[in-house]
Amino acid sequence: MIGKNKKKQSEQTGMDKPYFQAEQMSVGYQRHLVVQDIEITLNQGEILTLIGPNGAGKSTVLKSIARQIEMLGGSIYLDQNELNRMSSQELSKKMAVVMTSKLRSEKMTCEDVVSTGRYPYTGRFGILSSDDKKVVKEAMDLVQVTPIKDLDFTRISDGQRQRVMLARAICQEPQILILDEPTSYLDVKYKLEFLSILQEMKHQKKLTVIMSLHELDLAERISDKILCVNGITPERFGTPQEIFTKGYISKLFGISSGSFDEKTMNAELPKPCGKPSVFVIAGDGTGRNIYRKLQRKNIPFATGILFENDLDYPVAKALATEVISTESFEPIKGKTLEVAKVTLSECDHIICCRPHFGTFEKANEELLSYAKQLGKIIK
Fold first, then answer.
1. What is the 8-class DSSP label of residue 156?
2. Contact criterion met (CB below 8 Å) for 304 and 340
3. 170 near 98, Cβ under 8 Å?
4. What is the pLDDT of residues 269-278, one digit of tens each?
5. 230, 269, 183, 211: which is closest to 53 by C-alpha?
6. pLDDT tens figures, 26-55
7. Most CB within 10 Å of its CB: which of 11, 67, 170, 175?
8. Greatest C-alpha distance within the chain
9. Burial class (CB in 10 A: 0-12, 13-18, 19+), 78
10. Mean pLDDT along residues 267-288
């Protein structure tokens, strides 16, 4: 299937010569096979993300591409040149690598660490020219680590360290960047800034990026291509739209507790079990916080009437014992209202999240009036 995808993508782009290509690639440690038959085709300036469960082999694939460990089989081509035939000096000018392993940096400032990214361009004594120093400054400014340039690299936070290492990689002025879980130690602000920098460099400098990510929502947003790793052979390789199909992520990660919705990228904990004791009248995104609060308290609940394109609907499907729903952009049918009334009448408590209802929601307004007639507790 992966080979067919590769051929199809080549036909769509009209490019016969991809910038990065892996053919029949097999990786592992000390002849112990981890992943085989890896087929990757990337044009210059594309971002590829590897996803999959822990221990599936993502880091092994990246280390093999970076030539940190020897491949067990297959070939990799970078700009039509076979990777294994390139000298270390030549490769260091084309490829930069940021792995999760710690850098040995005793008594080095953050600026010192970033400056080591210029070593492929300096002489044997590693003396930086004025142009080299300018590149270092620009890289530090770009990832916003200039304020900490004089601090000891071993005494900064993990998040700061990750950004310093990105600046070091940028200093190499690479054509391809290899990153292993680059956002692991970053808070949400720096995750977005980090990935924005990659996207900016992709557009401005045609930087090609191959990385692994745990955050599936970010992978879906930034990636041109995604490789799914789980088991001896990669499962899927394609665009985010081709990867995030209904039910696939749960299968890839073996999710058995809780749920994941590929359409919304929502991950939810398991729904409470039992007969619903609470009925939630929601819609327009007003019910999600209530649903999750009830789940945390392990209270089974029902909800409705929700349109199937409503913001509340995916969370309701994941957490509610029963969801009364209706077709989008259509008036709510009388039969659906009757079902909702029956379910509501069997619940002990009613929660209404809505201050008012829209034109197509007269049925929900009637449902609330019916609850009041029954003398149910309205919260």
1. S
2. yes
3. no
4. 999 999 999 9
5. 230
6. 999 888 999 999 999 999 999 999 999 999
7. 170
8. 87
9. buried
10. 95
